[in-house]
Amino acid sequence: MDLSSQLLQLLFSGLTLGSIYSLIALALVATYNITGVLNLAQGEFVALGALLAASIYAAGLPLAAAFLVSVALIAALGALIERSVIYPARESSALTLIIITVGLSISLRGLALLVWGTEPVSLPAFSSGGPLLLGGAFVNPQTLWILGMAAATTSGLYIFFELTYTGKAVRACVINRTAALLIGINPGTISLLAFAGSGAIGAAAGIFITPVTLATYDMGFMLGVKGFVAAAIGGMHNIRGAVLGGFILGILEVYSAGLISSGLKDAVALIVLLAALMLRPEGLLAISGRKV
Amino acid sequence: MLEIKCLEVCHGWVQALRGLSFQVVRGEMLAVLGLNGAGKSTLLGALAGLYKIKKGDILLDGESLSGKPPHQIVKLGISLVPERREIFNSLTVIDNLLLGAYHRYRYKKNEVIIDVVKIMDLFPALRGKENHPAGTLSGGLQQMLAIGRGLMARPRLLLLDEPSVGLAPLVTREIMTTLAELKKTGVTIILVEQNTAAALKVADRALVMERGGIVMSGKPRDMMENSRVQQACLGRTRAVQPAAAL
Ligand SMILES: Nc1ncnc2c1ncn2[C@@H]1O[C@H](COP(=O)(O)OP(=O)(O)OP(=O)(O)O)[C@@H](O)[C@H]1O
Ligand SMILES: [Mg+2]
Question: Is the model's pLDDT at B61 over the cut of 50?
Protein backbone atom coordinates (compact mmCIF):
# COMPACT_ATOMS: atom_id res chain seq x y z
CA MET A 1 0.00 0.00 0.00
CA ASP A 2 1.49 3.37 -0.99
CA LEU A 3 1.70 6.34 1.29
CA SER A 4 -1.23 8.28 -0.11
CA SER A 5 -3.66 5.41 0.27
CA GLN A 6 -2.28 4.79 3.73
CA LEU A 7 -2.93 8.42 4.59
CA LEU A 8 -6.44 8.13 3.21
CA GLN A 9 -6.98 4.98 5.23
CA LEU A 10 -5.90 6.80 8.37
CA LEU A 11 -8.10 9.75 7.49
CA PHE A 12 -11.13 7.46 7.49
CA SER A 13 -10.18 6.05 10.88
CA GLY A 14 -9.53 9.55 12.17
CA LEU A 15 -12.90 10.81 10.98
CA THR A 16 -14.61 7.84 12.58
CA LEU A 17 -12.91 8.32 15.89
CA GLY A 18 -13.39 12.06 15.57
CA SER A 19 -17.10 11.74 15.02
CA ILE A 20 -17.44 9.80 18.26
CA TYR A 21 -15.39 12.37 20.18
CA SER A 22 -17.50 15.11 18.57
CA LEU A 23 -20.73 13.61 19.79
CA ILE A 24 -19.43 13.22 23.33
CA ALA A 25 -17.98 16.75 23.30
CA LEU A 26 -21.20 18.17 21.96
CA ALA A 27 -23.23 16.57 24.73
CA LEU A 28 -20.72 17.81 27.33
CA VAL A 29 -20.76 21.38 26.04
CA ALA A 30 -24.53 21.56 25.71
CA THR A 31 -25.04 20.24 29.26
CA TYR A 32 -22.30 22.45 30.67
CA ASN A 33 -23.71 25.64 29.23
CA ILE A 34 -27.30 24.88 30.05
CA THR A 35 -26.84 23.61 33.60
CA GLY A 36 -23.37 24.75 34.61
CA VAL A 37 -22.50 21.10 35.24
CA LEU A 38 -19.44 19.59 33.61
CA ASN A 39 -20.76 16.06 33.39
CA LEU A 40 -17.74 13.81 33.74
CA ALA A 41 -20.06 10.80 33.69
CA GLN A 42 -20.86 11.44 30.02
CA GLY A 43 -18.51 8.61 28.97
CA GLU A 44 -20.45 6.15 31.14
CA PHE A 45 -23.57 6.83 29.05
CA VAL A 46 -21.55 5.63 26.05
CA ALA A 47 -20.43 2.45 27.81
CA LEU A 48 -23.81 1.63 29.36
CA GLY A 49 -25.59 2.21 26.05
CA ALA A 50 -23.25 -0.22 24.30
CA LEU A 51 -23.38 -2.89 27.02
CA LEU A 52 -27.14 -2.69 27.34
CA ALA A 53 -27.67 -2.97 23.60
CA ALA A 54 -25.38 -6.00 23.46
CA SER A 55 -27.41 -7.72 26.19
CA ILE A 56 -30.72 -6.89 24.56
CA TYR A 57 -29.44 -8.20 21.24
CA ALA A 58 -28.12 -11.35 22.93
CA ALA A 59 -31.58 -11.84 24.43
CA GLY A 60 -32.91 -12.23 20.91
CA LEU A 61 -34.22 -8.83 19.83
CA PRO A 62 -33.27 -7.52 16.38
CA LEU A 63 -30.33 -5.13 16.24
CA ALA A 64 -32.47 -2.09 15.40
CA ALA A 65 -34.76 -2.80 18.36
CA ALA A 66 -31.77 -3.29 20.67
CA PHE A 67 -30.49 0.11 19.50
CA LEU A 68 -33.78 1.92 20.09
CA VAL A 69 -34.50 0.33 23.46
CA SER A 70 -31.00 0.97 24.75
CA VAL A 71 -30.99 4.61 23.59
CA ALA A 72 -34.38 5.18 25.20
CA LEU A 73 -33.33 3.55 28.47
CA ILE A 74 -30.07 5.50 28.71
CA ALA A 75 -31.97 8.73 27.96
CA ALA A 76 -34.28 7.81 30.84
CA LEU A 77 -31.23 7.08 33.00
CA GLY A 78 -29.87 10.54 32.15
CA ALA A 79 -33.17 12.10 33.17
CA LEU A 80 -33.29 10.05 36.36
CA ILE A 81 -29.76 11.10 37.30
CA GLU A 82 -30.60 14.74 36.65
CA ARG A 83 -33.70 14.61 38.86
CA SER A 84 -32.21 12.54 41.67
CA VAL A 85 -28.65 13.86 41.92
CA ILE A 86 -28.00 16.99 39.87
CA TYR A 87 -31.23 18.95 40.32
CA PRO A 88 -31.26 18.79 44.14
CA ALA A 89 -27.64 20.05 44.15
CA ARG A 90 -28.14 22.75 41.50
CA GLU A 91 -27.36 25.61 43.88
CA SER A 92 -24.00 24.11 44.86
CA SER A 93 -20.66 25.39 43.61
CA ALA A 94 -19.25 24.29 40.27
CA LEU A 95 -16.60 22.24 42.08
CA THR A 96 -19.17 20.36 44.16
CA LEU A 97 -21.15 19.56 41.03
CA ILE A 98 -18.05 18.26 39.25
CA ILE A 99 -17.22 16.05 42.24
CA ILE A 100 -20.79 14.74 42.13
CA THR A 101 -20.40 13.78 38.47
CA VAL A 102 -17.06 12.10 39.20
CA GLY A 103 -18.80 10.09 41.90
CA LEU A 104 -21.57 9.24 39.46
CA SER A 105 -19.05 8.12 36.89
CA ILE A 106 -17.35 5.79 39.38
CA SER A 107 -20.68 4.36 40.59
CA LEU A 108 -21.97 3.75 37.08
CA ARG A 109 -18.73 2.05 36.11
CA GLY A 110 -18.94 -0.11 39.25
CA LEU A 111 -22.51 -1.01 38.38
CA ALA A 112 -21.45 -1.95 34.84
CA LEU A 113 -18.67 -4.12 36.25
CA LEU A 114 -21.15 -5.93 38.51
CA VAL A 115 -23.64 -6.54 35.72
CA TRP A 116 -21.42 -7.22 32.72
CA GLY A 117 -18.08 -8.25 34.27
CA THR A 118 -14.72 -7.55 32.71
CA GLU A 119 -15.18 -9.53 29.48
CA PRO A 120 -15.77 -7.41 26.40
CA VAL A 121 -19.15 -7.84 24.71
CA SER A 122 -19.91 -7.35 21.06
CA LEU A 123 -22.56 -6.54 18.51
CA PRO A 124 -22.57 -7.65 14.87
CA ALA A 125 -21.70 -5.13 12.18
CA PHE A 126 -24.80 -3.25 11.00
CA SER A 127 -24.38 -4.46 7.45
CA SER A 128 -22.68 -7.57 6.16
CA GLY A 129 -19.90 -7.70 3.62
CA GLY A 130 -16.17 -7.13 3.63
CA PRO A 131 -14.29 -3.84 3.56
CA LEU A 132 -15.07 -1.48 0.70
CA LEU A 133 -12.34 -0.07 -1.49
CA LEU A 134 -12.67 3.72 -1.53
CA GLY A 135 -10.04 5.72 -3.44
CA GLY A 136 -7.34 3.17 -2.70
CA ALA A 137 -8.22 2.76 0.97
CA PHE A 138 -10.06 -0.15 2.56
CA VAL A 139 -12.99 1.04 4.59
CA ASN A 140 -14.92 -1.04 7.06
CA PRO A 141 -18.64 -0.57 6.26
CA GLN A 142 -19.30 0.02 9.96
CA THR A 143 -17.15 3.13 9.62
CA LEU A 144 -19.65 4.51 7.15
CA TRP A 145 -22.47 3.73 9.57
CA ILE A 146 -20.66 5.62 12.31
CA LEU A 147 -19.98 8.62 10.07
CA GLY A 148 -23.58 8.56 8.88
CA MET A 149 -24.94 8.42 12.42
CA ALA A 150 -22.70 11.29 13.53
CA ALA A 151 -23.76 13.34 10.51
CA ALA A 152 -27.44 12.58 11.13
CA THR A 153 -27.19 13.44 14.85
CA THR A 154 -25.32 16.66 14.19
CA SER A 155 -27.74 17.77 11.49
CA GLY A 156 -30.70 16.78 13.62
CA LEU A 157 -29.34 18.92 16.44
CA TYR A 158 -28.62 21.72 14.00
CA ILE A 159 -32.23 21.70 12.86
CA PHE A 160 -33.41 21.55 16.47
CA PHE A 161 -31.26 24.51 17.55
CA GLU A 162 -31.73 26.67 14.46
CA LEU A 163 -35.30 26.04 13.44
CA THR A 164 -37.43 25.03 16.41
CA TYR A 165 -38.78 27.26 19.16
CA THR A 166 -37.72 24.85 21.90
CA GLY A 167 -34.27 24.63 20.35
CA LYS A 168 -33.98 28.40 20.44
CA ALA A 169 -35.12 28.42 24.06
CA VAL A 170 -32.32 25.96 24.85
CA ARG A 171 -29.86 28.22 23.01
CA ALA A 172 -31.18 31.15 25.00
CA CYS A 173 -30.23 29.29 28.19
CA VAL A 174 -26.77 28.65 26.79
CA ILE A 175 -26.25 32.27 25.72
CA ASN A 176 -27.52 33.93 28.87
CA ARG A 177 -28.93 31.97 31.78
CA THR A 178 -30.15 34.97 33.74
CA ALA A 179 -32.02 36.38 30.77
CA ALA A 180 -33.47 32.93 30.08
CA LEU A 181 -34.82 32.85 33.64
CA LEU A 182 -36.29 36.30 33.19
CA ILE A 183 -38.27 35.41 30.07
CA GLY A 184 -39.86 32.59 32.01
CA ILE A 185 -37.87 29.54 30.99
CA ASN A 186 -37.89 26.94 33.75
CA PRO A 187 -34.23 25.94 33.94
CA GLY A 188 -35.19 22.61 35.50
CA THR A 189 -37.04 21.50 32.38
CA ILE A 190 -34.18 22.45 30.09
CA SER A 191 -31.66 20.78 32.39
CA LEU A 192 -33.72 17.58 32.31
CA LEU A 193 -33.81 17.76 28.53
CA ALA A 194 -30.03 18.24 28.40
CA PHE A 195 -29.30 15.17 30.50
CA ALA A 196 -31.80 12.97 28.68
CA GLY A 197 -30.38 14.15 25.34
CA SER A 198 -26.82 13.52 26.52
CA GLY A 199 -27.80 10.03 27.55
CA ALA A 200 -29.36 9.30 24.17
CA ILE A 201 -26.44 10.71 22.17
CA GLY A 202 -23.88 8.88 24.32
CA ALA A 203 -25.72 5.58 24.03
CA ALA A 204 -26.06 5.91 20.26
CA ALA A 205 -22.36 6.61 19.90
CA GLY A 206 -21.49 3.60 22.06
CA ILE A 207 -23.72 1.22 20.13
CA PHE A 208 -22.36 2.29 16.74
CA ILE A 209 -18.72 1.77 17.72
CA THR A 210 -19.24 -1.56 19.49
CA PRO A 211 -19.01 -3.69 16.31
CA VAL A 212 -15.55 -2.15 15.71
CA THR A 213 -14.12 -1.68 19.20
CA LEU A 214 -16.21 -4.06 21.35
CA ALA A 215 -17.72 -2.78 24.57
CA THR A 216 -16.30 -3.06 28.06
CA TYR A 217 -17.50 -1.77 31.41
CA ASP A 218 -14.63 0.74 31.54
CA MET A 219 -14.65 2.05 27.97
CA GLY A 220 -16.45 5.22 29.05
CA PHE A 221 -13.66 6.72 31.08
CA MET A 222 -11.18 7.34 28.27
CA LEU A 223 -13.95 8.38 25.88
CA GLY A 224 -15.17 10.90 28.44
CA VAL A 225 -11.65 12.31 28.80
CA LYS A 226 -11.28 12.58 25.02
CA GLY A 227 -14.66 14.22 24.73
CA PHE A 228 -13.64 16.74 27.37
CA VAL A 229 -10.40 17.50 25.52
CA ALA A 230 -12.36 18.01 22.30
CA ALA A 231 -14.76 20.32 24.11
CA ALA A 232 -11.88 22.28 25.63
CA ILE A 233 -10.28 22.68 22.19
CA GLY A 234 -13.58 24.12 21.04
CA GLY A 235 -13.74 26.47 24.01
CA MET A 236 -16.50 24.84 26.14
CA HIS A 237 -19.05 27.44 25.04
CA ASN A 238 -19.55 26.53 21.47
CA ILE A 239 -21.22 23.45 20.04
CA ARG A 240 -19.67 23.93 16.61
CA GLY A 241 -16.29 24.29 18.32
CA ALA A 242 -16.85 21.04 20.20
CA VAL A 243 -17.66 19.16 16.99
CA LEU A 244 -14.60 20.61 15.26
CA GLY A 245 -12.45 19.82 18.31
CA GLY A 246 -13.61 16.20 18.20
CA PHE A 247 -12.58 15.77 14.59
CA ILE A 248 -9.23 17.51 15.11
CA LEU A 249 -8.46 15.25 18.06
CA GLY A 250 -9.56 12.07 16.29
CA ILE A 251 -7.50 12.80 13.19
CA LEU A 252 -4.41 13.85 15.15
CA GLU A 253 -4.60 10.72 17.29
CA VAL A 254 -4.89 8.37 14.37
CA TYR A 255 -2.14 10.04 12.34
CA SER A 256 0.31 10.15 15.22
CA ALA A 257 -0.43 6.56 16.15
CA GLY A 258 -0.25 5.39 12.55
CA LEU A 259 2.72 7.39 11.35
CA ILE A 260 4.86 7.85 14.45
CA SER A 261 4.12 5.36 17.20
CA SER A 262 1.00 3.64 18.41
CA GLY A 263 2.01 4.41 21.98
CA LEU A 264 1.30 8.08 21.27
CA LYS A 265 -2.44 7.69 20.82
CA ASP A 266 -3.57 8.72 24.28
CA ALA A 267 -0.70 11.12 24.92
CA VAL A 268 -1.78 13.14 21.90
CA ALA A 269 -5.02 14.11 23.61
CA LEU A 270 -3.18 15.60 26.56
CA ILE A 271 -0.63 17.36 24.37
CA VAL A 272 -3.42 18.84 22.27
CA LEU A 273 -5.27 19.89 25.42
CA LEU A 274 -2.21 21.69 26.80
CA ALA A 275 -1.52 23.35 23.46
CA ALA A 276 -5.11 24.45 23.10
CA LEU A 277 -5.25 25.86 26.62
CA MET A 278 -1.99 27.76 26.14
CA LEU A 279 -2.60 29.08 22.64
CA ARG A 280 -6.34 29.63 22.53
CA PRO A 281 -7.89 29.18 25.98
CA GLU A 282 -11.08 30.77 24.71
CA GLY A 283 -11.49 28.11 22.04
CA LEU A 284 -10.86 27.79 18.33
CA LEU A 285 -14.05 29.43 17.19
CA ALA A 286 -14.14 32.14 19.82
CA ILE A 287 -13.41 35.00 17.40
CA SER A 288 -16.75 34.56 15.73
CA GLY A 289 -18.36 35.45 19.06
CA ARG A 290 -21.20 33.13 18.17
CA LYS A 291 -22.36 30.61 20.67
CA VAL A 292 -24.04 27.29 19.97
CA MET B 1 -50.93 46.70 43.09
CA LEU B 2 -47.51 46.05 44.56
CA GLU B 3 -46.67 46.15 48.22
CA ILE B 4 -43.16 45.73 49.55
CA LYS B 5 -42.91 45.10 53.27
CA CYS B 6 -39.66 45.38 55.25
CA LEU B 7 -37.76 43.66 52.45
CA GLU B 8 -34.30 42.33 53.26
CA VAL B 9 -32.05 40.67 50.69
CA CYS B 10 -28.43 39.55 51.03
CA HIS B 11 -25.73 38.68 48.53
CA GLY B 12 -23.63 36.30 50.58
CA TRP B 13 -22.42 38.44 53.47
CA VAL B 14 -23.44 41.74 51.90
CA GLN B 15 -26.84 42.93 52.98
CA ALA B 16 -28.05 44.77 49.88
CA LEU B 17 -31.57 45.65 51.05
CA ARG B 18 -32.19 46.64 54.66
CA GLY B 19 -35.88 46.55 55.46
CA LEU B 20 -37.34 48.39 52.51
CA SER B 21 -41.05 49.24 52.43
CA PHE B 22 -43.13 50.98 49.79
CA GLN B 23 -46.16 50.55 47.59
CA VAL B 24 -46.80 50.98 43.90
CA VAL B 25 -50.22 52.01 42.62
CA ARG B 26 -51.69 50.51 39.47
CA GLY B 27 -50.87 52.50 36.36
CA GLU B 28 -48.20 54.72 37.85
CA MET B 29 -44.59 55.10 36.83
CA LEU B 30 -42.28 55.05 39.83
CA ALA B 31 -38.69 56.20 39.40
CA VAL B 32 -36.12 54.65 41.74
CA LEU B 33 -32.95 56.73 41.97
CA GLY B 34 -29.68 56.30 43.81
CA LEU B 35 -25.95 55.96 43.47
CA ASN B 36 -24.00 52.89 42.43
CA GLY B 37 -24.39 50.11 44.95
CA ALA B 38 -27.49 51.60 46.57
CA GLY B 39 -29.36 48.34 45.98
CA LYS B 40 -31.57 49.33 43.07
CA SER B 41 -30.79 46.29 40.91
CA THR B 42 -31.11 44.03 43.91
CA LEU B 43 -34.59 45.41 44.51
CA LEU B 44 -35.69 44.74 40.93
CA GLY B 45 -33.99 41.32 40.97
CA ALA B 46 -35.86 40.40 44.14
CA LEU B 47 -39.15 41.49 42.55
CA ALA B 48 -38.38 39.25 39.56
CA GLY B 49 -37.49 36.29 41.76
CA LEU B 50 -33.76 36.24 41.05
CA TYR B 51 -32.76 36.67 44.69
CA LYS B 52 -33.95 34.97 47.84
CA ILE B 53 -35.96 37.11 50.19
CA LYS B 54 -34.35 36.95 53.61
CA LYS B 55 -37.00 38.86 55.51
CA GLY B 56 -40.17 40.74 54.70
CA ASP B 57 -42.44 40.12 51.76
CA ILE B 58 -43.49 41.26 48.32
CA LEU B 59 -47.20 41.21 47.50
CA LEU B 60 -48.49 41.51 43.95
CA ASP B 61 -52.20 42.25 44.12
CA GLY B 62 -52.20 40.58 47.50
CA GLU B 63 -50.33 37.45 46.43
CA SER B 64 -46.95 36.81 48.04
CA LEU B 65 -44.02 36.39 45.66
CA SER B 66 -41.70 35.12 48.38
CA GLY B 67 -40.05 31.84 47.37
CA LYS B 68 -41.48 31.89 43.85
CA PRO B 69 -38.98 31.21 41.05
CA PRO B 70 -38.57 33.71 38.19
CA HIS B 71 -40.50 31.63 35.65
CA GLN B 72 -43.59 31.67 37.86
CA ILE B 73 -43.27 35.37 38.57
CA VAL B 74 -43.19 36.13 34.83
CA LYS B 75 -46.48 34.27 34.48
CA LEU B 76 -47.95 36.35 37.30
CA GLY B 77 -47.24 39.45 35.25
CA ILE B 78 -43.90 40.93 36.32
CA SER B 79 -41.28 41.40 33.64
CA LEU B 80 -37.74 42.67 34.28
CA VAL B 81 -35.66 44.40 31.61
CA PRO B 82 -32.30 43.84 33.27
CA GLU B 83 -29.24 46.00 33.68
CA ARG B 84 -26.94 45.73 30.63
CA ARG B 85 -29.92 44.52 28.56
CA GLU B 86 -28.90 40.84 28.50
CA ILE B 87 -30.40 40.19 25.10
CA PHE B 88 -29.64 36.93 23.30
CA ASN B 89 -26.81 38.18 21.10
CA SER B 90 -26.55 35.38 18.59
CA LEU B 91 -30.30 35.02 18.13
CA THR B 92 -32.17 37.26 15.71
CA VAL B 93 -34.29 40.22 16.76
CA ILE B 94 -37.46 38.28 15.96
CA ASP B 95 -36.32 35.26 17.96
CA ASN B 96 -35.51 37.48 20.94
CA LEU B 97 -39.03 38.89 20.82
CA LEU B 98 -40.70 35.50 20.33
CA LEU B 99 -38.75 34.07 23.26
CA GLY B 100 -39.98 36.97 25.39
CA ALA B 101 -43.41 35.35 25.12
CA TYR B 102 -42.08 31.98 26.27
CA HIS B 103 -44.79 31.26 28.80
CA ARG B 104 -47.66 31.60 26.30
CA TYR B 105 -46.09 30.88 22.90
CA ARG B 106 -47.28 27.28 22.77
CA TYR B 107 -50.91 28.04 23.52
CA LYS B 108 -51.34 31.39 21.82
CA LYS B 109 -49.06 31.54 18.83
CA ASN B 110 -51.27 33.91 16.85
CA GLU B 111 -51.61 36.34 19.71
CA VAL B 112 -47.82 36.31 20.13
CA ILE B 113 -47.25 37.12 16.47
CA ILE B 114 -49.69 40.03 16.67
CA ASP B 115 -47.77 41.26 19.72
CA VAL B 116 -44.49 41.17 17.77
CA VAL B 117 -46.07 43.49 15.21
CA LYS B 118 -47.22 45.78 18.03
CA ILE B 119 -43.67 45.92 19.44
CA MET B 120 -42.39 46.83 15.98
CA ASP B 121 -44.93 49.67 15.92
CA LEU B 122 -43.79 50.80 19.33
CA PHE B 123 -40.13 50.75 18.25
CA PRO B 124 -40.17 51.49 14.50
CA ALA B 125 -36.37 51.74 14.59
CA LEU B 126 -36.28 47.94 14.87
CA ARG B 127 -38.06 47.53 11.52
CA GLY B 128 -35.92 46.07 8.79
CA LYS B 129 -33.62 44.46 11.38
CA GLU B 130 -35.94 41.56 12.16
CA ASN B 131 -33.48 38.91 11.03
CA HIS B 132 -30.28 40.56 12.22
CA PRO B 133 -28.46 38.90 15.12
CA ALA B 134 -29.38 41.00 18.16
CA GLY B 135 -25.72 41.45 19.11
CA THR B 136 -25.03 43.43 15.93
CA LEU B 137 -27.52 46.17 16.82
CA SER B 138 -26.48 49.55 18.22
CA GLY B 139 -26.82 50.12 21.96
CA GLY B 140 -30.04 52.06 21.57
CA LEU B 141 -31.67 49.41 19.41
CA GLN B 142 -30.51 46.69 21.81
CA GLN B 143 -32.20 48.56 24.65
CA MET B 144 -35.39 48.88 22.62
CA LEU B 145 -35.21 45.18 21.88
CA ALA B 146 -34.68 44.37 25.55
CA ILE B 147 -37.75 46.44 26.48
CA GLY B 148 -39.68 44.85 23.62
CA ARG B 149 -38.72 41.39 24.80
CA GLY B 150 -39.85 42.30 28.32
CA LEU B 151 -43.20 43.51 26.97
CA MET B 152 -43.73 40.30 25.01
CA ALA B 153 -44.48 38.63 28.36
CA ARG B 154 -47.52 40.96 28.59
CA PRO B 155 -46.58 42.22 32.06
CA ARG B 156 -48.86 44.08 34.43
CA LEU B 157 -45.73 45.44 36.06
CA LEU B 158 -42.69 46.31 33.96
CA LEU B 159 -39.34 46.73 35.74
CA LEU B 160 -36.60 48.64 33.93
CA ASP B 161 -33.01 48.70 35.19
CA GLU B 162 -31.12 51.73 33.91
CA PRO B 163 -32.38 51.70 30.34
CA SER B 164 -30.48 54.90 29.50
CA VAL B 165 -26.98 53.67 30.35
CA GLY B 166 -24.52 54.36 27.57
CA LEU B 167 -27.08 55.88 25.23
CA ALA B 168 -26.98 59.22 23.44
CA PRO B 169 -29.35 61.85 24.92
CA LEU B 170 -31.54 61.73 21.83
CA VAL B 171 -31.98 57.96 22.09
CA THR B 172 -32.62 58.23 25.81
CA ARG B 173 -35.35 60.77 25.11
CA GLU B 174 -36.89 58.46 22.50
CA ILE B 175 -36.98 55.58 24.95
CA MET B 176 -38.43 57.71 27.74
CA THR B 177 -41.16 58.94 25.39
CA THR B 178 -42.01 55.36 24.54
CA LEU B 179 -42.20 54.51 28.24
CA ALA B 180 -44.62 57.36 28.76
CA GLU B 181 -46.74 55.97 25.90
CA LEU B 182 -46.63 52.53 27.44
CA LYS B 183 -47.84 53.89 30.72
CA LYS B 184 -50.88 55.24 28.96
CA THR B 185 -51.76 51.71 27.88
CA GLY B 186 -52.10 50.79 31.55
CA VAL B 187 -48.78 49.10 32.31
CA THR B 188 -47.40 49.91 35.73
CA ILE B 189 -43.69 50.74 35.55
CA ILE B 190 -40.79 50.87 37.99
CA LEU B 191 -37.93 52.73 36.37
CA VAL B 192 -34.50 52.50 37.97
CA GLU B 193 -32.24 55.26 36.72
CA GLN B 194 -29.06 57.14 37.46
CA ASN B 195 -30.01 59.62 34.78
CA THR B 196 -32.07 61.54 37.33
CA ALA B 197 -33.24 64.28 35.03
CA ALA B 198 -34.52 61.94 32.35
CA ALA B 199 -36.31 59.73 34.86
CA LEU B 200 -37.93 62.59 36.77
CA LYS B 201 -39.29 64.02 33.53
CA VAL B 202 -41.47 60.97 32.87
CA ALA B 203 -42.16 59.52 36.33
CA ASP B 204 -45.23 60.16 38.49
CA ARG B 205 -43.36 59.61 41.73
CA ALA B 206 -39.77 58.97 42.76
CA LEU B 207 -37.84 57.19 45.50
CA VAL B 208 -34.21 57.71 46.36
CA MET B 209 -32.29 54.73 47.68
CA GLU B 210 -29.10 54.73 49.66
CA ARG B 211 -27.32 51.73 51.21
CA GLY B 212 -30.27 49.42 50.81
CA GLY B 213 -32.91 51.75 52.22
CA ILE B 214 -35.20 54.53 51.05
CA VAL B 215 -33.98 57.96 52.06
CA MET B 216 -36.44 60.15 50.21
CA SER B 217 -39.63 59.92 48.23
CA GLY B 218 -41.96 62.38 46.60
CA LYS B 219 -43.17 64.09 43.48
CA PRO B 220 -40.60 64.55 40.71
CA ARG B 221 -41.17 68.31 40.75
CA ASP B 222 -40.14 68.61 44.41
CA MET B 223 -37.15 66.36 43.84
CA MET B 224 -35.94 68.33 40.88
CA GLU B 225 -36.13 71.61 42.76
CA ASN B 226 -34.41 70.20 45.78
CA SER B 227 -31.00 70.64 44.22
CA ARG B 228 -29.00 70.44 47.40
CA VAL B 229 -30.46 67.09 48.35
CA GLN B 230 -29.88 66.01 44.82
CA GLN B 231 -26.19 66.78 45.04
CA ALA B 232 -25.85 64.84 48.24
CA CYS B 233 -27.84 61.83 47.25
CA LEU B 234 -27.48 61.53 43.56
CA GLY B 235 -24.08 62.96 42.82
CA ARG B 236 -23.99 65.34 39.88
CA THR B 237 -24.82 63.77 36.55
CA ARG B 238 -24.07 60.21 35.63
CA ALA B 239 -21.44 61.14 33.06
CA VAL B 240 -19.21 62.93 35.55
CA GLN B 241 -19.19 60.32 38.28
CA PRO B 242 -18.82 56.85 36.83
CA ALA B 243 -18.65 54.42 39.72
CA ALA B 244 -17.30 57.17 41.94
CA ALA B 245 -19.46 56.07 44.84
CA LEU B 246 -18.22 53.28 47.11
N1 LIG C 1 -24.00 39.15 43.01
C2 LIG C 1 -23.56 39.88 44.05
N3 LIG C 1 -22.72 39.36 44.95
C4 LIG C 1 -22.28 40.07 46.01
N5 LIG C 1 -22.61 41.34 46.23
C6 LIG C 1 -23.44 41.95 45.36
C7 LIG C 1 -23.95 41.24 44.22
N8 LIG C 1 -24.75 42.10 43.53
C9 LIG C 1 -24.72 43.26 44.21
N10 LIG C 1 -23.95 43.17 45.31
C11 LIG C 1 -23.73 44.24 46.31
O12 LIG C 1 -24.99 44.63 46.77
C13 LIG C 1 -25.06 46.04 46.88
C14 LIG C 1 -26.19 46.57 46.04
O15 LIG C 1 -25.92 46.32 44.65
P16 LIG C 1 -26.91 46.69 43.48
O17 LIG C 1 -26.36 46.09 42.26
O18 LIG C 1 -28.29 46.31 43.87
O19 LIG C 1 -26.79 48.27 43.41
P20 LIG C 1 -27.30 49.27 42.32
O21 LIG C 1 -28.00 50.32 43.04
O22 LIG C 1 -28.05 48.55 41.26
O23 LIG C 1 -25.96 49.83 41.71
P24 LIG C 1 -25.61 50.25 40.21
O25 LIG C 1 -26.10 51.63 40.06
O26 LIG C 1 -24.13 50.16 40.18
O27 LIG C 1 -26.27 49.29 39.28
C28 LIG C 1 -23.70 46.55 46.48
O29 LIG C 1 -22.96 46.76 47.66
C30 LIG C 1 -23.09 45.45 45.69
O31 LIG C 1 -21.70 45.44 45.84
MG1 LIG D 1 -27.76 48.30 39.26
Answer: yes
One-letter identity of residue A84: S
Longest Cα–Cα distance of chain A, Å, equals 61
**Contacts of B182 by beta carbon, 8 Å cutoff, 6+ apart:** B122, B151, B158, B189
Instruction: Kindly give the residue spans of alpha helices, DSSP state H, lying in chain A.
Output: 3-35, 42-58, 63-81, 94-116, 141-163, 165-175, 177-182, 187-213, 219-234, 239-255, 265-279
Instruction: Report residue B230's pLDDT band, with 50, 70 and 90 as the boundaries.
Output: low
In what order do the strands lie in the sheet containing B213-218? B78-81, B157-161, B188-193, B29-34, B205-210, B213-218
**Residues 177-206, chain A, touching B (beta carbon < 8 A):** 178-179, 181-187
Interface of A with B in 163-182 (CB under 8 A): 165, 168-169, 171-172, 175-176, 178-179, 181-182
| Residue pLDDT, tens place only, A78-110 | 999 999 999 898 888 888 999 999 999 999 999
Smallest Cα–Cα separation from B179: which of A181, A126, B187, A44? B187
pLDDT value of residue A138:
82
DSSP state of A248: H
Which residue ranges have their beta carbon within 6 Å of ligand 1?
Answer: B 11-12, 14, 16, 34, 36-42, 83, 194
Residue B238, pLDDT above cutoff 60: no
Please indicate whether, in this complex, the C-beta atoms of B88 and A176 are within 8 angstroms of each other.
yes
Among the partner residues B91, B103, B153, nearest to A172 by beta-carbon distance? B91
Asked whether A168 and A180 are in contact (CB, 8 A), the reply is no
| CA A76 to ligand 2 center in whole angstroms | 42
pTM, whole model, 2 decimals? 0.82
Question: Which amino acid, residue B54?
Answer: K
- The pair phi, psi for residue A24, each rounded to 5°, is -65, -45
Residue A83 gets which letter from DSSP? I
Q: How far is CA A111 from the centre of its chain?
A: 20
DSSP B10: E
CA of B180 to the centre of ligand 2 (A): 22
| 3 state SS of B64 | strand
Q: Please give the C-alpha separations between residue B4 and each of A277, B22, B24, B25, B58, in angstroms, as whole numbers.
A: 49, 5, 9, 12, 5
Ligand 1 atom nearest the C-alpha of B12 is 4
Query: How far apart are the C-alpha atoms of B69 and B52, rounded to whole Å?
Result: 9
Domain limits, chain A: 26-120+186-217, 220-292
Q: Are B48 and B70 in contact (CB under 8 A)?
A: yes
- H-type alpha helices, chain B: 40-48, 70-76, 93-100, 109-122, 139-151, 169-184, 196-202, 220-225, 227-234
* Model pLDDT, residue B37: 87
Mutation site for B-interface testing, chosen from A90, A161, A168, A183 by largest number of B Cβ within 10 Å: A183
Q: How far is A176 from chain B (nearest CA, A)?
A: 7
